[in-house]
Amino acid sequence: MGKPKKLFEKEMKKKIFKKNYWKDRELFKLELQFLKALEESGLTYEQFAKLIGSSKGNIARDLKSYGLGHASVHRIEKMAKALGMEFVPLLLPKDKAKREEKLHELLRLAS
To answer: What is the pTM of this model?
Structure first.
């Protein structure tokens, strides 16, 4: 197997990351979105940190082993904005049909 090409693949090689990924998958979905957006932006952790007035170490902490679980909503919003994105927390019904209906409604409102 070759060298991992993506940040996520690199992180999945780490035992603790992989274990926590499966345990706290929903939170990891958000971290994965940040890792992907950061990779697509071409920014380093250090450059990203400067954009939000933080340190490289804090960014590494936030994007590792469910670190965002300890971040405030304000911090997550700030991180998203620095990457040209908007953080949109949603409350959705557990029922699959109702969930899909609500998502379609939200998409109509957003367009």
So the answer is: 0.70
